[in-house]
Amino acid sequence: MKKLALLLIGLLLVPALFLTSCDRGDDLDDNGSVATPAFTLLKEYMTQNNLDIGNVLTNTNNQKFVVGAPAAADLQTFLDTYYIMDIRSNADFLNAHIEGANNVAFSDILTTAATTSKPILVVCYTGQTACYATALLRLYGYPSTRSLKWGMSGWNALTAGPWNGKIGSKLADGHNNWTHQGAPATLVFDNPTISTTLTDGEAILKQRVEALVAAGFGSVTVSGSDVLNNPSQYFINNYFSEADYSGFGHINGAYRILPLTLGDDSYLGLDPDPNAKVVTYCYTGQTSAVMTACLRVLGYDAYTMTFGMNGIFNTNPSWKTNQWGGDSNPKNLPVITN
């Protein structure tokens, strides 16, 4: 009878132990040892090879991810420096483009990048899609890649339509979800989970970048009006300076996790839930596009708020820099037209 009782206890414990092991998420390698999680492999590779988020924003040569349109006197040097990759539609490219620019589909940016030894300049309509592409190219092995700030909107008044049509909004002015309160306390979460059969950090990084390039930019954007009207549906991270966070005001509930890097574990302030909808917003939608590319590579359900602060409160009296129509306007640089 005693032996039967022990057998029954053993049978009950086996599935319990099995479920506990599964819950830990411990996969075994070919030798039967616990495998290193894919995220850890990716994190280690990125931090050891100058590919942390901070290095994507500003590379080891101190070059930011964006560069403004040049002064007229510096135009030729600017054109000679870069391989210009214009990722707009072919129709808009033919209508007006920068001299020497190459019209490249977003899905082809990685294969095209491999054909040049020059630093790459990515050009789009407003700078947002180009910044997303620039981040992915930097992560893939092209650290000198930059995007044209403000896109073609900043190059010539003839091509400024995309930005001119998105400013002047007072969506946030007087809105119930716009506040000057302090930031909520930063929480600490677990690492994201990355599903892959690869066991090498570099290979995991390239696989994830390639998948994001294939998916395109449109699926990672959210409108400012939706975030403003429904903040509880997002995990919001504001990318303003501390002074602007309080001076401009911000969307209610927005965290301010800045800087956000792997090396100091500040990324753990973001919710890794696959359905968390981590949305970053900045002044122009350009920095947030870079952050979104990096966070998606790392396994977050990340989004960029299009047009940033300019899209929801361009008339805010606290503006000093990065205000379209204020300190930033289109230049009068030449374009090739057909």
UniProtKB/TrEMBL annotation:
<feature type="domain" description="Rhodanese">
    <location>
        <begin position="249"/>
        <end position="321"/>
    </location>
</feature>
<keyword id="KW-0808">Transferase</keyword>
<keyword id="KW-0732">Signal</keyword>
<dbReference type="InterPro" id="IPR050229">
    <property type="entry name" value="GlpE_sulfurtransferase"/>
</dbReference>
<dbReference type="Pfam" id="PF00581">
    <property type="entry name" value="Rhodanese"/>
</dbReference>
<dbReference type="InterPro" id="IPR036873">
    <property type="entry name" value="Rhodanese-like_dom_sf"/>
</dbReference>
<feature type="domain" description="Rhodanese">
    <location>
        <begin position="78"/>
        <end position="164"/>
    </location>
</feature>
<dbReference type="InterPro" id="IPR001763">
    <property type="entry name" value="Rhodanese-like_dom"/>
</dbReference>
<dbReference type="GO" id="GO:0016740">
    <property type="term" value="F:transferase activity"/>
</dbReference>
<protein>
    <submittedName>
        <fullName>Rhodanese-related sulfurtransferase</fullName>
    </submittedName>
</protein>
<feature type="signal peptide">
    <location>
        <begin position="1"/>
        <end position="21"/>
    </location>
</feature>
